[in-house]
């Protein structure tokens, strides 16, 4: 077995264990993304939803519910809700970031236009709210509604924080908890809530999703400065070109001398980027061991995710979620 096959095993095992429920989720997604009056809606959503993503977030909802003994139908609705929220944010993000590639394919805003991406994203948000009320559970509705607001808040915070050299690791964490971890933690938490799990187990599921989401985003930020384009589904250095102050750069800026700080101010704050700047940025990250420090943070968050699972019942899926936390950080270890 190759290394790549080995590190993919946890996600594949989870997908196989939940295959029947995921088929139900996918069928519900296809049904609800239809539009009788606006054919562009299914065109745009199908482009992104059928792009071959792993459906990690909805799988987390199904896994959480199964692990604590749920046998009803509504975890499927909640999982589809989570995927719709995620897809809506991707459509909006690609417009905001002026991205041209997502999961190795042209973005919807490139193939259609910004207006279509924004409006179809709005439609998916609306669809997600229709779905999340169907279980008739006020607590899951509250969790997912709050997560939707937190995600939007995180994206707005990033608009100002991402290009400000005064941004600290604490502010970065706040952004990450908003734009990424909030949906991970909501996905796992609602699985426990719909199952009627005890409060300590619901908290453990929230903690797992939160820590896993943070590790996931730090890894994504690291790969932007050191992954292969075909592996990460976007161009290496996109965050630098988009002037995003991610964790590796924040760590390098904290150790920068005056000359280095002037470089970061020119390229990130002012957006004055020239040929060779990305290579110089990489050299500064290496000089201050910023990539290694960020990698250590990702591993620590993965460890926190695994530790939170000890409060949950012994179950084969619990073992898969433990392995999944290792899988998330395996691409940078």
Word description of this protein:
There is one protein chain. The chain has 333 residues and is mainly α. It is 74% helix and 1% strand. It contains 17 helices and two strands. Strands 1-2 form a two-stranded antiparallel ribbon. Strand 1 (101-102) and strand 2 (105-106) form a beta hairpin. Helix 5 packs antiparallel against helix 7 and helix 5 (74-96) packs antiparallel against helix 9 (169-194). The longest helix is centred in the middle third of the chain and has 26 residues, at 169-194.
**Main pleated sheet:** 2 strands, antiparallel
Rounded radius of gyration (Å): 20 Å
First-last Cα distance: 18 Å
- Tell me the number of strands: 2
Q: What secondary-structure arrangement, pairings included, does this model have?
A:
Elements (H helix, E strand, L loop, with lengths): L2 H15 L1 H14 L7 H10 L6 H12 L6 H23 L4 E2 L2 E2 L1 H4 L2 H20 L4 H24 L7 H26 L4 H26 L4 H4 L5 H4 L5 H8 L3 H12 L7 H11 L2 H19 L7 H15 L3
């Amino acid at each position: 077995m190759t290394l790549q096959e080995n590190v993919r095993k946890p996600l594949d095992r989870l997908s196989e264990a939940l295959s029947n429920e995921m088929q139900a989720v996918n069928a519900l997604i296809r049904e609800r993304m239809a539009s009788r009056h606006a054919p562009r809606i299914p065109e745009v959503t199908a482009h992104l939803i059928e792009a071959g993503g792993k459906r990690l977030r909805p799988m987390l909802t199904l896994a959480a519910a199964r692990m604590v003994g749920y046998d009803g139908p509504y975890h499927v609705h909640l999982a589809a809700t989570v995927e719709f929220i995620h897809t809506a944010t991707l459509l909006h993000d690609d417009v905001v970031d002026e991205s041209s590639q997502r999961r190795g394919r042209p973005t919807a805003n490139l193939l259609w236009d910004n207006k279509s991406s924004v409006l179809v994203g709005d439609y998916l948000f609306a669809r997600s709210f229709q779905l999340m009320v169907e279980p008739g559970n006020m607590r899951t509705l509250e969790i997912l509604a709050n997560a939707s607001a937190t995600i939007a808040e995180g994206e707005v915070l990033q608009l100002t924080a991402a290009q400000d050299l005064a941004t600290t690791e604490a502010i970065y964490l706040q952004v990450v908890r908003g734009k990424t971890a909030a949906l991970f933690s909501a996905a796992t938490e609602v699985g426990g809530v719909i199952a009627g799990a005890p409060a300590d187990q619901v908290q453990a599921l929230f903690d797992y999703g939160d820590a896993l989401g943070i590790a996931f985003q730090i890894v994504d930020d690291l790969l932007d400065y050191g992954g292969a384009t075909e592996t990460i589904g976007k161009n290496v250095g996109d965050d630098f070109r988009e002037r995003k102050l991610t964790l590796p750069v924040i760590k390098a800026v904290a150790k920068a001398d005056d000359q280095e700080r002037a470089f970061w101010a020119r390229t990130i704050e002012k957006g004055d980027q020239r040929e060779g700047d990305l290579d110089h940025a990489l050299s500064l990250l290496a000089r201050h061991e910023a990539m290694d420090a960020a990698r250590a943070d990702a591993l620590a968050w993965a460890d926190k995710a695994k530790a939170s699972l000890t409060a949950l019942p012994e179950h084969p899926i619990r073992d898969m979620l433990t392995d999944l936390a290792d899988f998330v950080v395996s691409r940078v270890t």
